[in-house]
Design goal:
Structural class of chain A: mainly alpha
Strand order of the largest sheet of chain B: 1-2
Number of strands of chain B: 2
Shape of chain A: globular
Number of strands of chain A: 0
Distance between the termini of chain A: 37 Å
Oligomer: heterodimer
Shape of chain B: globular
Radius of gyration of chain A: 23 Å
Number of helices of chain A: 11
Largest interface: A-B, 100 and 100 residues
Largest sheet of chain A: none
Chain lengths: 275, 285
């Protein structure tokens, strides 16, 4: 290789390492200080290994955050599963069974992307109040499903368009019902996309603040994001505790992400509209 | 059975849930035309709320603040993710770890992101002072990153960009990877240097990615909320009070539901242009 090319190569790797280091430093730093007693950070010892590993931080944080954490699980899991499931139904209906209604319904779902969630908060609040669902899990679960559908339907419908018709027709000829085709042929084929969307929805719902802020009025149903804010308000300036709380909040979505990375990377492109 | 009936049958359940989106959306428009004395009594007042909103100092201010963040987002989306994607595309080893690292912030909630960066930017407890000293940049010490308006906007922007870049990097990367090698090689055979390859081949290929990344980024920038709640709650003063936050404060803290709805509707129209551009470019594929 010519020396000039070698220099450029080296430069690229140097930039990569520089950028990656800068990018990951917040999370590593947070994990570091989550294990330290307060005095150490006060003195600015962020980067050294903790002289004393302060597990107490995590115990304190968990004690406070536990109800919120449980709320998050109860809300996120059904919402993610239901929204993706419903999206596959709609996608099959409009993407595989291509009828006159397919386009209108598709555009209907697409329009949802233009609507800022914040605008809908006030009517949503009133609606849930009227239905007596304020401060119940149902309020948030229903909202997450409703507002999560546009994106999921879009991606899954694009996938549905790529399914070979012969496969479906062959099944029908063999006597399979429409729902049977959906269940035994479409769904298995859609598995990678479904996993991608499940993962995406899970992380999104787990981390969202808006609905919980408005629809949950007590720790009975408030999600983890609110728990974090409350924790911050209570333990202001105790950054080591905050760090532990933050780690507790992102450890689950991080696991989900790491486990489904492969699918997600392919899915990112799909979400941008590329096939 | 008529084909359309089947489509409807499959779409039925999803549509039932999805109707909530439209019910609340239209509800917001309707509510913006009403005034509320108590939580249950309201009267129709026409455009009075909008007159109030436009005349209210804080609305104008929050609209400007929001625009600042939108502008910063646009600038950032043209540079950081593109740089990351270009580097990842060229590097043969370490690209996988790099990808994971760049996308990792996506798993952190907006709130947690705000809190993490609030710590980073905090005066005595944050790592900036010790870093500044180690790197020999003494002028970076003792700055109230979140206590002064200009710095606050900058600090929030850091957190925001850190959060959203990864997703866009992946989109750019996917696009870069789809450029056929033969085209580049042919150009190089014809004597094109790297810069010309970039300008005449890479950029046109990236245009489609820009058409998606930018509108989406703008839409999200208009909805900036979580980080600000976690980092500054609109302060210092009202210098980081974006439209979404103002709407929340007016509607749920001052309980002026009519006024709040009006601001929400304004938010909708403000981001409508970007939303339409986004949907349009999604459909072009």
């Amino acid at each position: 290789m010519k020396p000039k090319e070698l220099l450029i190569r080296a430069g690229i790797y140097f930039l990569l390492i520089l950028l990656a280091t800068f990018w990951i430093f917040p999370m590593i730093a947070v994990v570091f200080i989550s294990f330290k007693p307060l005095r150490e950070i006060q003195l600015g010892y962020v980067w050294t290994l903790p002289k004393k590993v302060e597990w107490q931080n995590y115990i304190n944080a968990w004690n406070r955050l536990e109800p919120y954490f449980i709320n998050n699980v109860v809300i996120t899991v059904p919402s993610a599963i239901a929204s993706v499931l419903f999206a596959t139904l709609a996608a099959y209906g409009i993407g595989t069974i291509r009828s006159r209604l397919s386009s209108p319904i598709f555009y209907l779902f697409l329009a949802g992307i233009a609507i800022p969630f914040h605008m809908c908060l006030i009517p949503l609040f009133q609606l849930m109040r009227f239905l007596g669902l304020l401060d119940t899990y149902y309020a948030q679960i229903i909202s997450h499903i409703a507002f999560g559908l546009p994106v999921c339907v879009f991606v899954l419908r694009n996938f549905a368009l790529t399914v070979e018709r012969d496969l479906l027709d062959a099944a029908k000829v063999d006597g399979c019902s429409e729902f049977g085709v959906y269940r035994f042929i479409f769904l298995p084929l859609a598995r990678p996309v479904v996993i991608t969307m499940l993962s995406f929805q899970f992380m999104w719902i787990w981390n969202t603040l808006l609905w919980g802020l408005v629809l949950a009025t007590s720790t009975k149903t408030q999600p983890l994001t609110i728990g974090l804010l409350a924790f911050h308000g209570e333990f202001i300036q105790r950054w080591n505790l905050m760090a532990a709380a933050a780690v507790i909040s992102f450890i689950v979505p991080m696991l989900v992400f790491l486990l489904t990375q492969r699918y997600l990377f392919k899915g990112f492109a799909g979400m941008a509209g590329f096939r | 059975m008529l084909k359309a009936k089947r489509t409807l049958a499959f779409s039925f359940l999803p549509l039932v849930f999805y109707s909530i989106v439209f019910i609340t959306a239209f509800g917001a428009f309707y509510l913006s035309l009403t005034e509320w004395k108590t939580l249950d009594k309201f009267e129709f007042v026409g455009l009075e709320n909008f007159e109030w909103a436009v005349g209210y100092k804080r609305t104008i201010n929050s609209f400007l603040v929001t625009l600042i963040f939108v502008a910063i987002t646009i600038l950032a989306l043209f540079t950081v993710p593109l740089l990351q994607a270009l580097i990842l595309n060229q590097a043969s080893i370490g690209a996988d770890i790099g990808k994971t690292i760049f996308v990792l912030p996506q798993v952190v909630s907006g709130v947690a992101t705000g809190l993490i960066w609030a710590w980073i930017f905090s005066p005595t407890f944050g790592p900036i002072d010790s870093l500044a000293e180690a790197l020999g940049l003494p002028f970076l010490k003792e700055i109230a990153w979140l206590g002064e308006p200009h710095f606050a906007i900058m600090s929030i922007s850091f957190a925001w960009i850190w959060l959203i870049t990864g997703f866009n990097t992946m989109i750019y990367l996917a696009r870069l990877r789809s450029i056929p090698r033969d085209v580049i090689e042919a150009a190089q055979l014809d004597g094109a240097n790297s810069f010309q390859v970039f300008r005449y081949i890479t950029i046109p290929y990236l245009r489609i990615a820009f058409a998606i990344v930018l509108p989406l980024g703008i839409i999200n920038a208009f909805r900036l909320f979580d980080q600000i709640v976690a980092m500054t709650w609109g302060g210092p003063g009202h210098s980081t009070e974006v439209l979404a936050l103002l709407m929340y404060k007016v509607a749920f803290i001052r309980f002026e539901l009519g006024h709040g709805s009006a601001i929400g509707v304004l938010l909708f129209f403000a981001s409508l242009g970007a939303a339409i551009a986004y949907i349009w470019s999604l459909l072009r594929r």
